[in-house]
Amino acid sequence: MSATSHNNQSEEYALLGATQGIGKQLLMLLLVRGVKVRVLARNPSSLLELSSHPLLTIIKGDATNEQDVETLICCNSNTSSKLKGVFCALGTRANTPTTVVEDGTVNAIQAMKKLNDPIHFVLITSVALTDSKEHPWFYRNVVKKYLLNHIYDDLRNAEHKLVTLCEHSHITYTIVRPPRLVDSCLTLHYGYAKGNDILKGGKGVMSRADVAAFMLQCMFDKENSSLLRTNQAFNMDTTKAVPKEHDTVGLMTFLSWTLPRHQYIMIRMGVHSVQVGALAVLAYYLFPGQTRGWWKAITESVSRFVGRGSSGHRV
Q: What is the maximum span of the chain, computed from C-alpha positions, in angstroms?
């Protein structure tokens, strides 16, 4: 065994939210790197294809349960391994009142405080938590305030609790804030801004694989001192277009996951109305004569139908 692999396997990392999305991408990258990983999963069968990996320990439990998270973080699967870092990739799709990310973050930090060694925590939230005026008007005033407000409230509360609980402790942290996420290939074409700024020239969309790769950098990249500087937040974005053929989740599909059904149907009807109206205007300018004829025929048919219905009602 090489010295590098020996050092890697003397360290261990914990991961919350490993069963899907960014968390699953991150888990595979950690295993490829050759470090020991322990994950908490409500349904361990969702990681069945990786369950036999010699570097992976799967613990059945819930991130919102304080005791389960303490078991994950404080109980070494191997006494020769030392927990060096914790990743939190928790999230939810439904835009309903929730505290999943906040609870998972608080439980993790409280458990980490019981360890005496320095330890680093990497949390994923969203670039929507910035107040940058460079976000589109619709995104700032509709999506953030009404369509995804509960999801963002949970992420915002998680960040606040993280900063508060880590103050004057041996725990350091990095917050990763990506834009809209898609299932795409690893590109490594990304950048970041800090504070309340967003990356200029960014595409506003990022693959989950790239977010996972950046989270890995925040834990391991010793050559980039700006990434390892403690207690900071990075607002992520891609610098080149994400391959569209891999974007399997469009905006309407995403909204169907997150919104109550009646709200989704209303938005869908509104979108279709706008599309039909736009096509009607385009047809009028391209074929004015035919369009006027079609419109006249439609209005006459409607008038006859309404008149027939009114006559029947009077009788």
A: 96
